[in-house]
Write a structure and sequence with these properties.
Radius of gyration: 18 Å
Oligomer: single chain
Helix content: 55-70%
Length: 286
């Protein structure tokens, strides 16, 4: 349970960097879903409630994301606060990319969903062709980190389009959509742990599905009761989830429970599972 800390005096990885992303644990998935919820509600808050408009909100959040990623790339190890700040911001930007295409340019949700799915697939192909691995246990070079964050951006944009397609275009509503995506994530976990479904695809499919799940939860909590929500508002929902994220990040910063052990994964090119990661969907596949 304590094998996730770096050995004292051990040499850093290639190019002087440790693994730059957290271990895939239950904490990872909880914070990821919370970040996607904040991404949805924060985008709505800035766009509609504060009156910035979709275009200005995109400029502001894009600039903040660029700053966060600048420091993320400069870091030589995984820093929980910096990493999860980048995830929150990229979740907002991914939402805005999808919304700009559908709302400002009139691109149908069906089209944006397939477009982002294709962009994500191309990213994975290029990543694997370049690195011969899609492992997040070995994000210790800037090129691998660039592929990682590009994939993350497309997962958020894809999840936004797919979630809006289910909740709005197909008329399922926020609550039903949330249950639907939760069931799909459970099916992926079942396939991974009982049927030995491919670890890489288990991780990334679940990662995509957590975006519409979080967005549906965010809309359900924030939207007015007349629109099928609980009426908590975007401000209340955003502050609530940000407070929970902050608490978990502080805990992980102090405990280091999500730091990838040296050697990342099994070291033998296997699934990359660690005994302590009972709730993870590992993907250390070469």
């Amino acid at each position: 349970m304590t094998t996730n800390t770096h050995a004292a005096g051990a040499a850093p990885r290639s190019r002087g960097m440790w693994n730059k992303v957290p271990e895939v644990t239950l904490y990872f998935w909880v914070i990821k879903i919370l970040c996607t919820t904040v991404g949805e509600t924060a985008a709505d808050l800035l766009n509609a409630n504060l009156g910035l408009g979709l275009t200005n909100t995109s400029y502001v959040m894009g600039a903040l994301l660029a700053v966060a990623l600048f420091f993320q790339f400069r870091a030589r190890a995984y820093v929980p606060s910096l990493y999860w700040l980048s995830v929150v911001l990229i979740s907002v930007v991914g939402t805005l990319v999808s919304d700009n295409l559908t709302d400002n340019l009139g691109v149908p949700l069906e089209t944006t969903t397939w477009m982002f799915a294709l962009a994500l697939a191309v990213t994975f192909v290029a990543w694997y062709a370049s690195e011969r691995s899609l492992s997040i246990h070995t994000i210790h070079t800037r090129r691998r980190e660039a592929f990682y964050w590009l994939a993350i951006l497309f997962t958020f944009a894809l999840g936004t389009s797919a979630g809006d397609l289910a909740a709005e275009r197909l008329g399922l509503g926020y609550w039903v959509s949330a249950v639907l995506f939760a069931v799909l994530i459970a099916a992926v976990a079942f396939a991974r742990f009982t049927l030995d479904f491919h670890a890489v695809w288990s991780f990334w499919i679940a990662y995509v599905l957590t975006r519409p799940l979080g967005a549906s939860l965010g809309d359900y909590l924030s939207q007015a009761r007349a629109d099928g929500g609980l009426g908590l508002g975007t401000v209340g929902t955003s502050l609530l989830f940000l407070a929970v994220i902050l608490g978990l990040v502080v805990y992980l910063t102090r405990s280091k429970r999500d730091v990838t052990p040296l050697g990342g994964g099994t070291g033998g090119g296997g699934s990359g599972e660690h005994a302590r990661d009972r709730f993870s969907l590992p993907e250390d596949v070469r």
